[in-house]
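Box S1 | Example of a co-folding query
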Amino acid sequence: MNKSLSGIGMTSQRTRARLIERLREQGIKDETVLAAMFEVPRHLFVDEALASRAYDDVSLPINFNQTISQPYIVARMLEVLRGGGPLDRVLEIGTGCGYQAAVLAQVAREVFTLERIQPLYERARKQLRELKIRNVAVRYADGSLGLPDAGLFDGIILAAAAPSLSAVLREQLAVGGRMVVPVGAQEQWLYLVERDAAGFRETRLEPVKFVPLLIGKA
Ligand code: SAH
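Box S1 (continued) | Returned holo structure for S-adenosyl-L-homocysteine
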């Protein structure tokens, strides 16, 4: 657990405890994920005007037509990504405000996160720095093809919906690695892709609603 976060946001600790109880009721079982969600002050990642709603289980606007994901879906995706085990190197595509990256930082050794909208990238980087989260590398980049020069990842997580299950991305998984990805346009499903020595296995999990993965930097 990231020690530097303790003590921040004391006032919202009780609200966060309620959020964790709600996540349990919604079926999240991974204690490591629940502890990470308790640790990260979500209200610091949204506009002040929306801070009072930061612990409601809703997605909220973060400008540039993007949203911070609903706490349930962040918890669910991280639970699936972990698969009950520890995470070493993780790639996140779609930093947004950096909230999910901050939660990932609590459950993985090293996080790389990519954002294609420059002002969002800058704000997320600043916010993570202010929280003294040091194991997240934020890059201003088009992540639709992943981060092929950075070695293999134990986990890859997309915060935007891909048009299809990308073969380019799954090749960046290490053996034993897991990728969690929303796929589709109007109708979207969450997929888990697992890599083992024999190849890849895909599992369709549940319907979801994400902004689309777009090509190129903005
Ligand atoms: N995880 C984020 C939510 C992100 S919303 C959070 O906790 O706030 C999805 C983000 O994906 C948006 O910021 C969008 O700009 C970004 N995105 C979409 N396509 C992308 C691409 N090709 N490369 C990098 N980021 C992308």
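The CA atoms of residues 90 and 155 lie 5 Å apart. The chain has one domain: 3-208.
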